Amino acid sequence: MQIDRHIISENATLSEALRMLNDLSGGVMTLIAVNDGNRMTGTLTDGDVRRALLSGIGLDAPVASAMFRRFHALKEDCIDPAEVRAIRRRGIRLIPVLDNEGRVVRMIDTCLTRTVLPVRAVLMAGGKGERLRPMTLTTPKPLLEIGGKAIIDYNIEALAAVGVNDISVTVNYLAEQLEEHFATPVAGVCVKCVRETKALGTIGSVALVDLPEEGETIVMNSDLLTTVSFEDLYLRHTSEQADVTIAVVSYNVTVPYAILATEGERVLSLEEKPSYSYYANAGIYLFSNRLLRRLDRESRMDAPDLIGQAIAEGLKVTYYPINGTWIDIGSPADFAHARELMAHVRQTR
Fold first, then answer.
1. What pLDDT digit, counting tens, does each position of 89-130 carry?
2. Is residue 18 in a domain?
3. Are residues 147 and 10 in the same domain?
4. What was the pLDDT predicted at 121?
5. Average pLDDT taken over every residue of the chain
6. Which of 4, 7, 19, 36 has the most CB atoms lying inside 10 A of its own CB?
């Protein structure tokens, strides 16, 4: 976003402001008013100008006479996703981010970037995708296209849309293709590829990514098609003060027979074709960096084993149910289903 197009001096005239607002047609029609020190003092919309004119203020009057002074803004060094959500839910589309002096350093258009999550992300893309052969004999599974777009790019775009711009992809099988793919930014993000020299399991390769001691990291499989809310996942994780949060999907099992409830040799009841509901691991996690930094760069580790260790140590492990689409593209049937789904989405747009 071009910040300068939205910045206006509080001493400029309302006539000048209207010209600037007109130039913003089709976008976010909000101006940020600043004083002589470039510190933010208010916001101005066409509605503010209209109300000023109706009250008798002329077009030669300064912006300061019409601007809204009880504006919402974020501090650059402490952006709180819960605050971003609260502002967005008030219908405010443009959120300025200020430095410690009150100067605008960036702006968030919540229609493009819903929030700014203070996390990194690591996508696991080193697998061979053997169940999808022959398609994966020459193309790594994350680069298979659905709806004209590589599977992994859907996930990169979803992360970028919540302000995650530090994204690494761990690669192994046909690594050079993924490295070439990410030589060009995706959704404005310069994705870093980290190459495994050997198979390290479903989470072991995270050890190859340079993570700080503090903070959290989203770790996820790269071959998922999902509408998971990363914002809700993060807010659940932080509100629970968790060390690990596992995204889960509901999985129902129906037994095609009558099931007996027994006590010793005695039958207490029969239940005809009962159904049971469980939560299944969705392959998306939010981890404390302190836990991830324990991983050994030379040792294989699967995600369930690392989480099992965390539980055994008494660390807090919680879960977040996905409310929406989740497809693990692990078989030809899953791939066909995903393609049909995206074709339907395009037709309904």
1. 999 999 999 999 999 999 999 988 999 999 999 999 988 888
2. yes
3. no
4. 97
5. 92
6. 7
User: pLDDT tens across 299-347, in order?
Assistant: 999 999 999 999 999 999 999 999 988 988 888 888 888 888 877 665 5
pLDDT at 23: 92
**Pair type for strands 326-328 and 224-226:** antiparallel
pTM > 0.70: yes or no: yes
Q: Are residues 37 and 141 in the same domain?
A: no
Q: Residue 91 sits in a domain of what CATH number? A: 3.10.580.10
Q: What's the pLDDT score for residue 349?
A: 46
- Which phi and psi (to 5°) does residue 234 adopt? -65, -45
Q: 312 is written with which tokens?
A: 């055994």
